[in-house]
Known about the structure:
Blueprint: E1 4-7, H1 10-16, H2 29-32, H3 105-112, E2 121-123, H4 124-135, H5 139-152, E3 161-163, H6 169-172, H7 176-179, H8 214-223, H9 230-247, E4 252-253, H10 258-269, H11 282-289, E5 291-293, E6 299-301, H12 320-333, E7 339-341, E8 347-349, E9 356-357, E10 360-361, H13 367-379, E11 382-383, E12 389-392, H14 394-403, H15 405-408
Antiparallel strand pairs: 1-12, 2-3, 4-7, 5-6, 7-8, 9-10, 11-12
Bound molecules: protoporphyrin IX containing FE (HEM) and 2-acetamido-2-deoxy-beta-D-glucopyranose (3 copies).
Amino acid sequence: MRSLVVSLGLATAANAFPFVSNMDGVDSSLFRRQQSGGSNPGGPDTCPFNANHKPAAPFNAKYPYNYAQNGQKGHEKGGYQVPAPGDTAHMFVAPGKNDIRGPCPGLNAAANHNFLAHDGVTTFNELVDAQQNLYNVGYDLALLLAALGLTLTDGDLVTEKLSIGCDATTRTSFNPTLTGSEPGLDGHNKFEADSSLTRNDFFLGNGDNFSFNGTLFKMMADTTGNNFDLKGLAQYRLQRYNQSRAQNPNFYFGPLSLLLYGAASFLYELMPNGNHGYAPDLETISSFFGAQKQSDGSYKFNNKEKIPANWINRVAPYTNNDVTAQILEMYLLHPVLFGGNTADGSFNALPNFGSIQNGMISPTISTTNTACLLYQLSTQSVPSYLNGAITPTITALNFIASKVAPQFANLGCPIPLT
Length: 418
Ligand code: HEM
Ligand SMILES: *[C@@H]1O[C@H](CO)[C@@H](O)[C@H](O)[C@H]1NC(C)=O
Ligand SMILES: *[C@@H]1O[C@H](CO)[C@@H](O)[C@H](O)[C@H]1NC(C)=O
Ligand SMILES: CC(=O)N[C@H]1CO[C@H](CO)[C@@H](O)[C@@H]1O
């Protein structure tokens, strides 16, 4: 009943990474390092438990936002203030010690404003509604991200529940014995990847790759000149790639890392404030990230990932096509090799995967490949670290087929048969 199979067998490894089978003494401890079970950071033992789970606050007739509810398509018309003046149901409430928060500032802020369940145990429908009502994410992208969240992290495809941070299997799973653990968004190398903007690499953080790191936030602010735009973030992503590749012996930059470019685009596409001329400025970005500047110029996390005051969301919906275009543009400003560091200290390029050929995305990538770029991540076996692959199960493919595929069918993406 697990939504994904992480195959670690050598046969699969040899398939996904032909060079692995030629390597002496493949270190099998590398397999285990990705599991954040038990009392490890992100594991179930230390994951907060809120006995008083309350679902997200839905919109109401007085404060309708984008009219998105029950996972359905809303109006896709932004340009309004969030939270609406007077709407106490979506006021900021800082997370308590029993609330789960994770690696995504966008979802953390949504939970702090009750657009997602405040305890951080959310559902597919809440994710789809919140993205539309709060950020004016287009329906197609809202569906894709929510589906990736559920399937790539072993969220529960029966209850459609997902933890936005650590392992909360006892609350997300319909039957923990059958499903096994559902690690939530903290789960490494599925959705959570190395060389994030403000999170440590899994290996460098002793397994904590989801907490805010103020040194990295400062580096991002400095590199972009406090203006978190496409050019600046492209440069910063290159710096982070270089840094991880040089310092993290277990660095892995696989196809899912494409999502990091997508997330970086959210800073200048989804977070900017209409009352600031939609500039991705320091004040706005600091508020969403909960980054508090100290008197010595450094940054500390204030545990208040918050929609800025008097914030007006974007006018046009941010769609699949929009985010794909930004991912490609940002990557192509500073193209880097996909692949990973290996035990012998060398770097191995990723074998061909979709639009990634010879370890790179070509600037002449075809229109179809472009459109299908993100869809492939949800429907194909994705190389996950050097000796494994994440293979969607039939259940996951069925889930994707019912939720997401209709949006892609007419783009000509290969729809897998289940
Ligand atoms: C269902 C929808 C979403 C899911 C499942 C999701 C999940 C994630 C995950 C797992 C990460 C960590 C990736 C990594 O660093 O390795 C992440 C990062 C990020 N997300 Fe989301 N996200 C969603 C929607 C959003 C939205 C709507 C926004 C913006 C408003 C957003 C903004 C960001 C940003 C800026 C980062 C980068 C943080 C950093 O690297 O420091 N996300 N998201
Ligand atoms: C934050 O990131 C920097 C740069 O990678 C690193 O040196 C530092 O140890 C990290 N801090 C924490 C608290 O993990
Ligand atoms: C990243 O590394 C490449 C190759 O080593 C180098 O050419 C480039 O200058 C580096 N860039 C940054 C921003 O660190
Ligand atoms: C296990 C571990 O190293 N945790 C650290 C990760 O980073 C945060 C800050 O970003 C620290 O507070 C943790 O101690």
